[in-house]
UniProtKB/TrEMBL annotation:
Family: Belongs to the peptidase M14 family.
Cofactors (names): Zn(2+)
Any GO BP annotation: proteolysis
Matching CDD domains: M14_Endopeptidase_I
Pfam families cross-referenced by the UniProt entry: Peptidase_M14
GO CC terms in record: extracellular space
Domain Peptidase M14: start-end pairs: 3-286
Gene3D superfamilies: Zn peptidases (3.40.630.10)
A Gene Ontology molecular function term of the record: zinc ion binding
Name listed for the protein in its UniProt record: M14 family metallocarboxypeptidase
Keywords: Hydrolase, Metal-binding, Metalloprotease, Protease, Zinc
Active site: E263 (proton donor/acceptor)
Species annotation: Paenibacillus soyae
Lineage: Bacteria, Bacillati, Bacillota, Bacilli, Bacillales
Length: 293
C-alpha cells in the first residue's frame, strides 16, 4: 500500500471493481460539503443486509483502505469460488448483502492527506485558523466545516454537546449546530433509514476494541456477538458509557438491533501505513464474521 489513500484513487478502485465483478454495484448516497459523492458498494445477493462504514473521522482514513481491501478480496473470492480466511464466501454472500461505505468523510480525509491544496481558496484561511495556524492537519477528525461527523446523530445529542463543551467548529469534537446539520451525516442517516440493516459496523482507529452497547437499547444478543467478533480478531469487547450521538449509538437506539464501533489498530492517529498489513490481518476475520451478524 502507498503512503496515502486518497479519495480519487478510491473512486478509481471502485470503478475497477464494478467493471470486473458483476457482484459489486456502486451507488452514490449523498455528497460531502465540497460536493464529493459519498459512495456505497453493494456486494452480495442475500436477503440479510449488513452495513460496514469507514472514515467518519478524517485522520482515520486508513480504515477506508482496510474496508476496500476487504471488498476487493470478497469479490475476487466470490467470483473464483476460493475461500477467504478459510471461509466459504459463496455461501455467505448468498445469505448476506454487504453495503459498504468506505469513506464517509471524503473532504476531511483529503484535507488530512493533501492539506490546504485540496480545498477551494475561500476555505483556506478559516481552516488554517481553526487548526491553530498549523498547515499539518494530521490532528483533524472533523469534516471540512469543522464538525465531528460521529457526534452528529440524534441520540442524546444535547448530552454529547454539553459533555464536549466545544462551542464552535474545530479539528475535533464539535457536534455541530444541531443533529444531522452536515450533509455527510444526513446522507448516512437517510441511507440507513432506507435500507434497514440487520446490523452495522463502524470502523475507526485506534485501540483494538469493540464497543457494542448503547444506554441499554442494544438487543440481548449484542454482547455475545461482540465476543465472537473479539474472539476472531483479538480485539476486546468493551461496554462503553459516557458517549452519545455516534452513528452506532443512533442505530442501536432507533432500531434496537446490533451495532458495533470497531477501533482498529493501536497507536496515534493517523496510524502509519506500515501497520496496514498487520491491522488487516487482525481485522479481516472480524469483517468476515460481521457478515454473519
Amino acid at each position: 500500500m502507498k503512503d496515502e489513500y486518497r479519495y480519487g484513487g478510491m473512486m478509481e478502485e471502485i470503478g475497477r471493481l464494478t467493471s470486473a465483478y458483476s457482484f459489486v454495484e456502486a451507488h452514490p448516497i449523498g455528497w460531502s460539503v465540497l460536493g464529493r459523492p459519498i459512495a456505497a458498494l453493494r456486494c452480495g445477493v442475500g436477503p440479510k443486509p449488513i452495513h460496514i462504514n469507514a472514515s467518519f473521522h478524517a485522520n482515520e482514513w486508513i480504515t477506508s483502505a482496510l474496508l476496500m481491501r476487504f471488498v476487493s478480496e470478497l469479490s475476487e473470492c466470490y467470483r473464483t469460488g476460493r475461500r477467504l480466511g478459510g471461509q466459504d464466501v459463496s455461501g455467505l454472500c448468498c445469505e448476506t448483502t454487504l453495503w459498504a461505505v468506505p469513506m464517509v468523510n471524503p473532504d476531511g480525509a483529503e484535507l488530512v492527506q493533501g492539506g490546504l491544496d485540496t480545498v477551494p481558496p475561500h476555505y483556506r484561511d478559516t481552516l488554517l485558523r481553526l487548526n491553530g495556524g498549523l498547515t499539518d492537519f494530521n490532528g483533524w477528525k472533523a469534516n471540512i466545516r469543522g464538525v465531528d461527523l460521529n457526534d452528529q446523530f440524534p441520540a442524546y445529542w444535547e448530552e454529547e454537546r454539553k459533555r464536549r463543551g466545544i462551542e464552535g467548529p474545530g479539528p475535533r469534537d464539535y457536534p455541530g449546530p444541531y443533529p444531522l446539520s452536515e450533509p455527510e451525516a444526513a446522507a448516512m442517516a437517510a441511507f440507513t433509514e432506507r435500507l434497514r440493516f440487520r446490523a452495522v459496523v463502524a470502523l475507526h482507529t485506534q485501540g483494538r476494541e469493540i464497543y457494542w452497547n448503547y444506554r441499554d437499547y442494544e438487543p440481548p444478543q449484542s454482547e455475545e456477538l461482540a465476543r465472537k467478533l473479539g474472539a476472531v480478531s483479538g480485539y476486546e469487547p468493551i461496554k462503553l458509557s459516557g458517549s452519545d450521538a455516534g452513528y452506532k449509538d443512533w442505530f442501536i437506539q432507533n432500531y434496537r438491533l446490533p451495532g458495533f464501533t470497531v477501533e482498529a489498530g493501536y497507536g496515534e492517529n493517523p496510524l502509519p501505513v506500515r501497520a496496514f498489513e498487520s491491522i488487516y490481518a487482525e481485522l479481516r476475520p472480524l469483517l468476515i464474521e460481521s457478515l454473519r451478524l
